[in-house]
Amino acid sequence: MTRWLFLPCSTRPDGNTLALARAAAAHLPAGAQAHWFDLATPPLPRFADLRARGGHVAPKGRLAELAAATLAADELVIVSPVYWYGLAGPGHEMLDHWSGWLEVPGMEFAGRMRGKRLWLVTVRADPAQGSQAPLEDAMRRSARWMGLRFG
């Protein structure tokens, strides 16, 4: 049984990107489980890089829920419109927290993430072909750096 985690990060409720992700989720293979974790509502706590102050601590509250859902998933689907040629703010905030989780003693975030697949579902308003390319490239590079497969 494959566990899919959809991570909507648009600040626009019920936007086109979410509609596209819902349509994609309707076609998951038989037996797949789809879970949803909205990164925008309620907002994630701001990320603070604490490496210079003694390191990061285990996530708490909403971040602990996100970490548990992320680590339990086999397939991670970032659902983001193209905002200024990049990822929507809540999605970027999540990736910032991922970087902090790499530093949490005993969490073994990098090792537990390795081999999962990271997907990107995106919609763009810019009519110019290729305006989504910087976002796709950033996600592809992030996946490679984390040892994830990209889809």
Please summarize the sheet with the most strands.
Answer: 5 strands, parallel
For the biggest β-sheet, the strand order reads 2-1-3-4-5
Question: Which class best fits the helix and strand makeup?
Answer: alpha/beta
Low-confidence parts: none
As a percent range, the share of helical residues equals 25-40%
CATH superfamily placement: Flavodoxin domain
Question: Could you give a short description of this structure?
Answer:
36% of the residues lie in helices and 15% in strands.
Explain what this protein looks like in three dimensions:
The protein has 151 residues and is an alpha/beta fold. It has one domain: Rossmann fold. Helix content is 36%, strand content 15%. The protein has helices at 16-25, 61-72, 89-101, 109-113, 133-146; strands spanning 3-8, 33-36, 75-79, 117-121, 149-150. The two termini are 19 Å apart.
Structural topology:
Layout: E1 3-8, H1 16-25, E2 33-36, H2 61-72, E3 75-79, H3 89-101, H4 109-113, E4 117-121, H5 133-146, E5 149-150
Parallel strand pairs: 1-2, 1-3, 3-4, 4-5
Which labels suit this protein?
151 residues; alpha/beta; Rossmann fold; five-stranded parallel β-sheet; 5 helices; 36% helix
